[in-house]
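Notes from the pairing session

We agreed to fold both candidates in a single pass and log them together. This is the raw record for the first candidate, unedited. Please don't reformat it; downstream parsing expects exactly this layout.

Candidate A
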Amino acid sequence: MRHMRDVLRPDHLMLTSPSKAILKLEVRTWLSAGMKENAIRDEFGLTPTVYYQELNALLDDPDAIAYMPLTVYRPLRIRGQGTRPRPTRP
């Protein structure tokens, strides 16, 4: 049986190095979306679409939440908001 202290220790997590790198990229700030897309291509060799599919899968991974909770919760919160209907003009 695993104890809570063992679950919260990063060395017991099953994340791969690329998964950790994706989460670490999300922490960085960008001056433009183009800069982030270039970094995604350069660092991972992925298109932004494939990168965001990988990121979306990580958001549902308990190990990712344990590894970098604040990094995971922000996109989860944004994903949960969905699209809002536009207000109608009078």
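Candidate B (folded immediately after A)
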Amino acid sequence: MVHNSDSNLRIKDLWLASTWNFSNLVTVLPDFVKHLIMAVIIPSIPRSTDMVIWGMNDTCVYTSKSSFLLLLNKSNTLLVNSIWPRVWKLKAPDKIRMIL
């Protein structure tokens, strides 16, 4: 769980002098999470600001169409590479399989 005082921190508050500095965090992060974060290098771009982008299309702008295409693609992947085919083959009443 994230400590309330950490909820307003931004990357710029933790990326200092081209390295990660977790001393500003009150939340205790597990070591494996710290290692995953430390593997990310933030490029230095002068006067850049934090912003939210949608990385699921070429324009980086969210649209309902890009969201639908993402879900459509993910659902196909989930059906092929997951447990769902086995769930539907279960010998159980339909209402039980629908709950799963």
